[in-house]
Amino acid sequence: MRRSIDINVDAGESYGNWKMGNDQQVFASVTSVNLACGSHASDPVTMSASVEAAVSHGLSIGAHPGYPDLAGFGRRHLAMSGPDLFASVLFQLGALSAFTKLHRTAIRHVKAHGALYLHMMVDPATADAVASAVSSFDASLPIVILAGEGGELMRAAAQRHGLRTLREAFPDRSYLPNGQLTPRSHPDSLVLDPELVAERAVGMALHRTVDAVDGTEVPAEADTLCIHGDNQAAPEIAAAVRRALEQAGVDVGPPTHGT
Length: 259
What we know:
Elements lengths: L3 E8 L11 H5 L4 E5 L7 H13 L3 E5 L17 H21 L6 E2 L3 H7 L3 H15 L4 E4 L5 H9 L4 E5 L24 H14 L1 E3 L5 E3 L4 E5 L5 H14 L3 E2 L7
Parallel strand pairs: 1-2, 1-9, 1-10, 2-3, 3-4, 5-6, 6-9
Antiparallel strand pairs: 7-8
Helix pairs in contact: 2-3, 3-5, 5-6, 7-8
């Protein structure tokens, strides 16, 4: 049976005169996109333009809520209460939804950003607040979680709130032996060589594993592979990943289901 997988990118992360990423170039190689919702990045004009660009490329659109931290790009943990985090995530989903309606499309999945994504994988209260907000907004939307054992806590929270999940792996990020992503403070947290990222992506798609920073093999059975749009090599990485997957006989397309 042929393997199929989605390639997603975190995008729409410019803000005012501050520009981030080469979205149009990356969009040509991916099949779904996670668009910032105005808290860790983006603004109303950027959100509208990003949705329009995603539609023009035929991409499945996901919401990418993060901590309300424009100065830190959502990569700093904020000690928010459960009700505050619930309200923040729900607010962000509503903001992006206004622009998907404007461009006659809809949000198809939800993927948290940065520090929020990482914290909801290890903190039950954060996981519950995020899952509750997504379920309250639209319980038919799958929520993206870290593939393997690192995502089990968030999977349980999603199930409690009646949500499906999409398992995600990161060919352009390194992993710890416990299946969690290596913190960005680590000197080897990023993998920036397009051909190496592509090789890792094929391994994830076909063998459902990835080598951790210490050389051990960790499970990475994924429905979707993420390419980070906020680095200079993102267009080359996305193109190399798609080319390598197709050459390996993997069908590439947006996610059609969750678990």
